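Hey, can you fold this one?
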Amino acid sequence: MTPSERLRELGITLPAPARPAGAYIPAVRIGKLVWTAGQLPVIDGRLTCEGKAPADVSLERARAAARLAAVNALAAAAAETDGVDGLSRIVRVNVFVNSSPGFADQAKVANGASDLFAEVFGEAGRHTRCAVGAAELPLNASVEVDILAEAV
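Sure. Predicted structure:
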């Protein structure tokens, strides 16, 4: 099954890449590698999850936000390859979690992103990863995700 077929089966439609909020581009391709800028849990330009985990945002909600940010990262990468089927694997995922002092479950939040890539790409969606706690994130987002993907 292709990644686009898996997305359809999962009921996920990739959005247009988010417009940059600063002096950067959503993704860049060099040869067979595609890097994305950090992506937030945004739908139609609106941030859907703000605040620190777990003080303002439950672990489950932060995990869902990581999944949404991963969808946005996938959309940015796919735009560089004329569609998601132009991506052959996810190489690296970085997940930044807006964390309350003492919160140490960033890896559980990051699983929201990691699980999405495994669902869409199967074995080729398994990747290396960093899950990092941050004192603050842009716009007070609860999570930010960036990826490195390999193009076909």
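The mean pLDDT is 97. Let me know if you want another pass with a different chain boundary.
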